[in-house]
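Before the break, one more example. Copy the sequence into your notebook; we will annotate it together after we see the structure.
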Amino acid sequence: MQEIERIDFRDAVKQLAKSENIDIGKYQFDKNKVEEYADEKEKIKRIHKLAQTFFKDELTKDEPALKYLKEKRKLDDETIDKFGI
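Here is what the structure looks like once it is written out:
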């Protein structure tokens, strides 16, 4: 329908629902809520990134922990850096 009618996905869904007498009103998104959710998600991502950076920096100061990762867990510097350990 999108290609035939040259409409986007949302409009295609609306037209198909209308043609089949399906009420999709209860599935409509509140744009403000979607934006709030996205903002909240971004905040959480930033918090996780800050925590990862903190713990990674602390690990570089802890020689026994680094020794454990390299000798016991067999992780090299590249792997530690790649996964942000």
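The two ends are 48 Å apart (CA to CA). The CA atoms of residues 59 and 74 lie 16 Å apart. Try to locate both features in your own notes.
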